[in-house]
Amino acid sequence: MNATRSLLFALCGLASASAQDFFSELFNPLVPFPPLNQPQPGMRPQNGPWNNDVIVYHAKADGSIGQLAKFERAGVPTINRMPDGRLIAAHQHFPENDAATFDKVAVHFSSDEGKTWTDAIVMKLNGLPEGMRFPFDPTLVTLPDGRVRMYFTSLRGRQFDEDLPRIHSAISNDGIEYTFEPGVRFSIEGRSVIDCAVALHQGVFHLYSPDNGKQPEPGQRPNNGPQMQPTDGIGYHATSTDGLNFTRADDVKVEGRRRWLGNAQSDGKTITFFGTGEGVFTATSSDGANWQLGSTLRVMGADPGAVAAKDSGWIVAVTGPPRNQQPAFAPEDRWLFDWAEEMRFFERQSPDAAASTTAEQINQMWSRGQAKGEGPVKLKSFPLRLDDIGYIIPLGNMQSGHTTPSDHLYLVPTGAANRSGGQRNGQQGQRMDDRDFSQLYDVVAVADGFIVMLQWRPNPQGGQAKYDPSVFDREVDLKVFIEHSAHVWSYVDHLIEVDPAIMKDVPGGVQPGRPVSVRIPVKAGQVIGKIGNQTFDFALIDTRTTRKGFVKPGHFLLRDPQKPHVVDPFDYLDESVRAPLIAKCARKVPPFGGRIDYDIDGRLIGNWYEQGTGGYAGLNRRIDYWVGHLSLVYHHLDPKIVVVSIGSYDGRAQQFWVKGNQPDPATIGEKDGIVKYELIHGQLGSSGQVQMRQDGDQVQGTVLCQVLPDRKLKFEAFPGMSAAQVNGFSAGAKEFER
Questions:
Q1: pTM over 0.85
Q2: Which domains occur in the chain, in start order?
Q3: Spatial separation of the C-alpha atoms in residues 324 and 92, rounded to whole Å
Q4: How is the beta sheet containing 166-172 ordered, strand by strand?
Q5: 430 Cβ neighbours under 8 A, 6+ residues apart
Q6: Which pLDDT tens digit goes with each residue over 296-350?
Q7: Cβ contact 58:315 at 8 Å
Q8: CA-wise closest residue to 205 among 174, 177, 167, 155
């Protein structure tokens, strides 16, 4: 269907009933969109497919991603290579002030591997039968004789009960002017066949299309019954020796919540499919019928088109999320725009009404809209009993993948705090952990409330330490959310056990993966689980409080939406326990609970995100979402120390102190031009212990920073170089934003 409409029509069966109604009205694929200055009554033009862009990336073989270009007001891209080596891309086209070409297919050409492109040229089509819809959902295939065939979706009429969408084709010598090829390439009785992908592999054309369910009866909305629901992981498959006459084969399958909505390419030995769901996934097949899942690309978007790059990897074009990044839909449906596996963690489980504020959103995500009580909430304790706490690490710690200041405290049990030297050297120089993991501690509720969500976080393939060396692998890794009022929640993370008295009220138990919503009353001090001799996370959220030090809180709507509302739990403690707990805290200056928000508009200080890496949430919600993060803030224990925390420094996330702690990033603005910082290793551990390093004052590298207009920053790191060795930005400088 027309750009994002095809995508949403194919996916809306996975959304809530209210979202299906909205999408079927707004993104009905068989009703042409009017120009923007002629909106249909009741429709919201800002949320149409014209509010998306096609984004072109270079996905290199080493897994790195770089944005190459953007086609504004566009969607449903396809990309291929012309016989002369140029790239050709086609997409649905939504120019703002050109009704004649609105919602048509446009093409671009690139002679430099996608870095620059020609302006959009609307395709010309000769011989289209009278009454047939102009092509949408294009797929380009370059033929052995040098011609370009465009497969596309079309139908006769405008309504679902008038005709079924089918796959047709047209042929071109130049990629711009096409001639309609008579007949239907592929259709299925009673089914809408849309948005196909076609690859020529070993002399056979393989056509794939997502299973979008049964065609509705007259008067029915799409996806209104179980037979009309799209099927996860299932795609139609047909083959042809001439590219014109296709024969249906067995359906193709992949695991998970994935859709055969995308593009297929063959290198002569293997077909690679680029699809939509749980990120932009890839799958490979040697015969076109049996598929094996591959890697997930770190690009934010859906319905991808791809072509092999000349040097390495792929040139990938995707339909990006809406520009405003804040679609007015229920949080359970936000995945339609985030395209990310982990976003399903935040799906709202009460489908009755969409959230209009962040507070409502968190209520819906965690408490299914049932949070109650006005408070005030007073904490009777922290989640570990006082005698079991070795020390407390406050908010704001930055370590490895926690590139921006962390929004939770760490509680360290006495057995972990008192171990000899933390870790000691074993034989042959191996580091050995001498903690007694058989020792367990009770984790208790900090105040009266309801346990509203339980999650067992599965270990990623290769283990968590593969992505973040500061995290050790846990066979069981549990997170518990507790509602204390209509505005206040707490959570504890990395438990190894939930108390059996609680689990008896969870009939289906908790399995690795998706969270389980419950509503189990608990009292302050009640045991909710166990922790071993290891640190664990504790956070308190109050949606009546919003931190002022984030210039753009919307960054967190796609991941960790509670972050602007995280509060200092010491401020909520009952006075009888506050002083003894503060004595356990590694931070000795107010605010004792630490700080996470340092942004000052127009100044260097605070959080920044590399352009093209997906902002705070990262691309496709991959585990190492922090690779594009940058923070220049103060140390979580000693605010006189300036810390530079970089999501990707010399190949991994690292943190450094600024030598001399000058100039203060809070004072640096656009007028100050380029600023140099020399980086040294920190001399203070996360818990406050002094670390006497022999190379403590040795410069580890230098960074250059230049604040630019419009909340932009130019930044470059020079590992292993002193300030005297760095004369200015190189071609490797990157631009950040916030």
A1: no
A2: 4-36+50-339 (2.115.10.20), 358-585 (2.70.70.10), 598-738 (no CATH)
A3: 20
A4: 124-126, 177-186, 166-172, 148-154, 136-142
A5: none
A6: 886 778 899 999 999 889 999 999 877 654 333 333 333 333 323 333 333 333 3
A7: yes
A8: 167
